Amino acid sequence: MTRVVVVGAGLAGGTVVGRLRALGHAGPIALVGAEAHLPYERPALSKGYLTGATTLDRLLVHPQQTYDDLGVELRLGSPATGLDVERRVVQLGADELPYDVLVVATGSTNVRPPIPGMDLTGVHQLRTAEDADRLREHAANATTAVVVGTGFIGCEVSATLRSLGLEVTAVDALPGPIWAVLGEPLSGRVRGWHEAHGVRVLGGAGVAALEGGGWVEQVRLVDGTVLPVDLVVVGVGARPELGWLEAAPLERASGGLLVDAGGRTSAQGVFAAGDLAAVDGVRAEHYSAALAQADRVAHAVLGLPVPAIEPTWFWSDQYEHTLQYAGRHGPEDQLVERAEPYTGFFLREGALTAVVTVDNGRDLRRGMKLLGRAVDPALLADPARDLRTVA
Ligand SMILES: Cc1cc2nc3c(=O)[nH]c(=O)nc-3n(C[C@H](O)[C@H](O)[C@H](O)COP(=O)(O)OP(=O)(O)OC[C@H]3O[C@@H](n4cnc5c(N)ncnc54)[C@H](O)[C@@H]3O)c2cc1C
After folding, report:
1. Which of 239, 240, 266, 287 has the most CB atoms at less than 10 Å from its CB?
2. pLDDT in tens, 108-156
3. Residue among 81, 287, 325 to mutate when testing ligand 1 (max atoms within 8 A of CB)
4. Prior bond to 341 cis, omega within 30?
């Protein structure tokens, strides 16, 4: 019987084992995870889990009972250290785990910028439940925080720390929040949310050093400004977790593993899903993409027709606002906006490439149906116009 080994017990890994059984795989399945926890969902780590409103058991992809019922062998707290695609074995330190089919789902790791002082106590990065626990405990005894990086996670952490009562300064070398993904004018809107809640937002502010004697005490900006702090959170991006695959001959793309729609890598019997999978060369570090890819991989592993690739979407909760984005736009795409509630449409040669909404899930869903289609910008800009009738 085909033995499936899934490496990476996170969202994609936890999902794929459930989908394999649901689709009829009867052979052995092993799920290998570096963390000691059952697979859990990370989005709450920067939001409700960080405040303490949500507990880890509520974030599990499946409860323990499900893995027992499905007969999935769990190898948790046991990071994979290497892969031999010729012999079809995964190395777990001194142990070897043979597979017929391997699913690689080791997600992302945080970028650690080469800023002096990153090793000081009180400097946090956020990826795991333990990272969030440490940050929550530290925040309970802190007054001032600097968040370095105002991408989605930096913005969410800023909002959460502020809601916990800290004085927060959010700094970024780019001109404003989420600039790299959405640019103006969305960046200005997000900045407005933070400033309305009392967060100081410094754009164009590179960090020269984190300074202190053991504990971090201040952040020195490139322009010489010094910000006194009790804690620092650095959230400047992530990259695929491929360290254990360094020697494996798997074709790469966009910094991850190149896969087709069914998650097949360049090596026979090896599939990939989640943050590290570059589907037809394109990676998406989002919750919905990991779920969809896990499902497609399960189909492909079992030789079933692979479901079509749907546009990916993501959300970000900050204060009372939910920002949602679907599709993929380029820097040259035309932005057409309607208000209120806010919806932005990105167009290339007249066709919709992406849609972004604020507190407007309905138009996000309707806009997703228009992706790839030619649409009249005047109709998109008209807030009275039902999106179901513009194309
Ligand atoms: C703080 C935070 C907030 C987020 N918020 C949102 C959000 O609001 N909306 C959204 O769409 N997305 C959000 N995301 C992104 C989303 O969580 C990821 O896209 C999703 O988890 C990807 O799933 P994955 O299975 O690829 O990776 P993960 O869920 O990260 O799982 C990868 C697993 O592999 C394990 N692993 C790593 N190396 C090894 C190894 N060598 N051996 C064995 N196991 C290994 C890791 O420990 C981890 O458990 C957020 C991410 C973070 C960190």
Report:
1. 240
2. 999 999 999 999 999 999 999 999 999 999 999 999 999 999 999 999 9
3. 287
4. yes
Question: For residues 196, 180, 341 and 41, what is the CA-based torsion angle, rounded to 10 degrees?
Answer: -90
Q: In terms of DSSP bridges, do strands 108-110 and 238-240 run parallel, antiparallel, or are they unpaired? A: antiparallel
0.70 exceeded by the pTM?
Answer: yes
pLDDT at residue 391, as a whole number? 82
277 CA: nearest ligand 1 atom:
26
Question: Is any ligand 1 atom within 6 A of the Cβ of residue 25?
Answer: no
The rounded distance, in Å, linking the Cα atoms of 82 and 364 is: 41
Question: What's the confidence (pLDDT) of residue 199?
Answer: 98
Task: Please enumerate in sequence order all residues whose Cβ is within 8 A of that of 343, keeping only pairs 6 or more positions apart, or say none.
Answer: 337, 355, 356, 357, 358, 360, 363, 364, 367
pLDDT in tens, 32-68: 999 999 999 999 999 999 999 999 999 999 999 999 9
> Which atom of ligand 1 is nearest the CA belonging to 15?
25
Query: pLDDT averaged over the chain?
Result: 97
Q: Closest by alpha carbon to 215, among 116, 118, 121, 119?
A: 121
Q: Which domains does the chain have, with CATH numbers?
A: 4-109+238-301 (3.50.50.60), 123-234 (3.50.50.60), 320-389 (3.30.390.30)
DSSP-derived 3-state class of residue 205: coil
